[in-house]
Amino acid sequence: MTDREDDIAKLIKRHNQGELTDNERNTLIDWVNESDENRRVFNELTSENGVQLAVREMYAFKRQHHTNEPAVVELYQGKTYWFKYILAAAAIIAVVSMVWMFAINSRKNNPVAVTKTVTKKTFQDLAPGGNKAVLTLADGSTIVLDNKSNGVIAEEGKTTINKKEDGQLEYKAQGLAATEGAARYNTISTPRGGQYQLTLPDGSKVWLNAASSLKFPVEFSGKERVVQLTGEAYFEVVHKDLPFQVVVNNAMKVQVLGTHFNIMAYEEEAAVKTTLLQGKVRVENEQQQAVTLQPGEQSLLTSGGLKVKTDPDVAEAVAWKDGKFKFVHADLKAVMRNLARWYDVQIEYDKNVPEKSFSGEISRRLNASEVLSVIEFAGVHFKIEGKKIMVLP
Fold it and tell me: At what angle do helices 368-375 and 48-65 cross, to 10 degrees?
């Protein structure tokens, strides 16, 4: 690697961080305009897909050459490390030299120099989660949705249940809802490592995250629409005269008319979080303490009661629905709980693991090893053993 390549790599890093001076920007523009190859490399290393590809290439390189983990690089002063800067770091030589050389020189079949100590290492991996769920019908019978072909998979009264492509289940009423008799309920449950989308009989849409379940009537009748949630789900509720209510863990109620909101209610988390994107919701706990949320606000239910956060990172709350992990000043254990649910693994910690907080985002479509390789730049290490991830200092 030449001194100029090193300088350009540093400029690309500063570009991705928004820190270029005017002179540095002009230098980078001149380099980009020198050749089509330079322009291609620049575009690859500054696009979201490009840096994710670079992370994949970095990991493939590590696996091929059985190297140790990349050198730890502090990318941000203090205790917070930014994943988007780490992604940039994974793509350019200014942070980890072998990545730049591999990303460019491997296409030319040139040898890649490795200056760090090389040791043997056994690499294991864990695939990301996907569209997996089990549907329990009113009679107690179950349907494993990931094993079923698309099309009508069941009928409940006057409602047909249709499995669509891309992990979607649709309930469609064929006539007027029944007004007599006991209501019939279905339950859709996702395992750890699963997710699913659901269109309810009233047309409302629900995205169900991993290790979650939703119980709902096959027909909405009566004075309100009521569903029961455990885990996490994002709702887009169709506006109707009948109020819509989500009962969370049999301990909290979220009442709406028509709105978009996310509820995160995993038992292992310290708080139940309801984040409102659109409309208005009323959140009430068992003690009948209640708050009303406006768009952009979040309620937090803890052992200490119910309170409102007026400036949450809304994108963080719903990133999972869009195929991303996003963290804002999240501690390491919070990050690992997210990974544990998505990759269906157990987490064990070495007693000497340092306390750190993380901010940034990364795709949930990557294998676990690739996600962990990115996090390792912040100064922690990982070892995958079967269905267990060891967190090491």
Answer: 100
Helices (H) and strands (E) in the chain, counts: 9, 25
pLDDT in tens, 290-339: 999 999 999 999 999 999 999 999 999 999 999 999 988 899 999 999 99
Which two three-digit tokens encode residue 142? 């179950």
Measured at the CA of 14, the angle between CA 11 and CA 18, to 5 degrees, comes to: 135
d(CA 248, CA 369): 33
156, two tokens: 């409940």
What per-residue confidence (pLDDT) applies to 97? 30
Closest CA to 145 of 169, 178, 116: 169
Q: Which of 173, 174, 175, 131 is nearest to 150 (CA)?
A: 131
CA-CA distance, 148 to 170, in Å (whole number)? 14
* DSSP 8-state secondary structure symbol assigned to residue 2: -
For residues 270 and 333, what is the distance between their CA atoms, to the nearest angstrom?
Answer: 12
Residue pair 153/143 in contact by the 8 Å Cβ criterion: yes
DSSP letter for each residue of 203-243: S-EEEE-SSEEEEEESS--SS-EEEEEEEEEEEEPPP-SS-
Rounded mean pLDDT of 2-28?
A: 76
> Would you tell me which CATH number, out of the four given (3.55.50.30, 3.30.565.10, 3.40.50.11900, 3.40.50.1820), belongs to the domain 1-126+326-393?
3.55.50.30
Enumerate the CATH 3.55.50.30 domain ranges in the chain, comma separated: 1-126+326-393
What digits encode the pLDDT tens for the residues 160-204? 999 998 889 999 987 655 555 568 999 999 999 999 999 999 999
130-317: CATH topology is Jelly Rolls (2.60.120)
Residues of the chain with CATH 2.60.120.1440: 130-317
Distances (CA, A) of 19 to 9, 10, 24, 85: 14, 11, 9, 12
Strands 298-302 and 272-278: what pairing?
antiparallel
Residue 310 Ramachandran class (φ > 0 left, ψ -120 to 50 alpha, else beta): alpha
Tens digits of residue pLDDT in 211-232: 999 999 999 988 899 999 999 9
For residue 359, name the pLDDT band (cuts at 50, 70, 90). confident
